Amino acid sequence: MKKLFKFGLALCIIICIYSCGKDTYFNCFLHLTNNTEHNIYIEKTIDGNSVNLTTVDANEVNKDVLGEIDRHRGEDYPPEAFIIEKLQNIRIYRKINDTIYELPRHYYDNPNDFTLYTDFFMGIHEIYYGLNVTEEMFQ
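RESULT FIELD:
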């Protein structure tokens, strides 16, 4: 029993050292808060040919995956070019009485347009790009 405990402890230490010492990756998410009176739709083109449509109800929050990218030691955030590329594949709009109103791209075409939230666990960085959508943004 003692040998098994020592083996388990040694294995845990090796895993911790390995995960902290190697390059890891970023998981990037779009964290959209719908502070409007209508549903918002997030249309994301995947691999250039398929489309994923997500509905965010009024006064609700949605977390949608933007993508993941390798991380090198010493980098705090994913490269801006990576995020800009992912944002180009997203369209945000709402429908009112069969009329489509698109959210202007200048609200979400650059990583600096977002509030950033970060989380780190076991060598994995999770970056949340927060966008608070309001009625005024559609006018």
